[in-house]
Amino acid sequence: MRGATLFGNIDYRVARTQGEKEAIYALRYQAFLKSGLIPESDDKRVTDKYDDAMNSWVFGVYVAGHLKGSIRIHLLTKECRESLCVDRYGDILNPRLDRGEVFIDAARFVGDPDIDMLELPYMIMRLAFVACEAFDVDTELAACTPEHAKFYSKVFLHKQLTQPATFPGVNHQGVLMASDYKAVRDRLCQRLPILRSSAFERRMLFGVREQLPLPAAA
């Protein structure tokens, strides 16, 4: 994988302006439409209330200055648990959050459907693992289609927690995937060294939000 040599061309940026957000919503629409996840719509954008959640970061992934991917990262704690995964799979996740477990929920994982770059999905998903390390979480979550579950299982060592079932907002069924981050971290970093991050990078990407009862980024 050329990932290590691509960092000079990769830029991760939290969407802060309305223009940055709209570009990401449009990219989601293009990718989800092409993959058959959603029907055509007049506004040609995909967004929901969780994009504005106070415990979320919506990242744009830029290659050579151009938006080519995006992912939404939710930090889930006993006090802050707003995410689609918690709303959809609360029977599984809420008891664990009540016990004090900390999760990262990687949502709206999307890449430009017209770019030919095998490393792009790894460079996008890397943000979830940077977040896991930043907040010393117990578990990394991802909701995906049954077809994509194989990717998460094989590459990122996730386990499937649910059977396929209707998922809000898409034409396909969804499943909940999860990995025991602390148990798989070393193995993943040996397999994919690009997942490693520095303390400086983690602080730059996940600065503390003072209005939330969240752990500080390490």
Task: Give structural notes.
The chain has 218 residues and is of the alpha+beta class. It has a single domain (3-205), classed as Gcn5-related N-acetyltransferase (GNAT) (Aminopeptidase), CATH 3.40.630. Helices cover 37% and strands 23% of the residues. It contains 8 helices and 8 strands. It has helices at residues 3-6, 18-34, 84-88, 90-98, 120-135, 146-156, 181-191, 199-205; strands spanning 10-14, 56-63, 66-76, 103-111, 139-144, 159-160, 165-166, 173-180. Strands 1, 2, 3, 4, 5, 6, 7 and 8 form an 8-stranded mixed β-sheet that branches. Strand 2 (56-63) and strand 3 form a beta hairpin. Helix 5 crosses helix 8 (199-205). It is globular and about 45 Å long.
Strand proportion, as a percent range, falls in: 15-25%
User: What is the CATH homologous superfamily assignment?
Assistant: Gcn5-related N-acetyltransferase (GNAT)
Cα(first) to Cα(last) distance is 28 Å
CATH C-level class is: Alpha Beta
Q: Write the element-wise H/E pattern from the N-terminal end onward.
A: HEHEEHHEHEHEEEHH
| Rg (C-alpha, Å) | 16 Å
Task: Give the % helix.
Answer: 25-40%
What's the rounded overall pLDDT mean? 89
Rough outline: globular
**SS-based structural class?**
alpha+beta
Show unreliable segments. Answer: none
Biggest pleated sheet:
8 strands, mixed
Total helices: the number is: 8
For the record, the count of structural domains works out to 1
Number of strands: 8
Tell me the CATH topology.
Aminopeptidase
CATH hierarchy: architecture: 3-Layer(aba) Sandwich
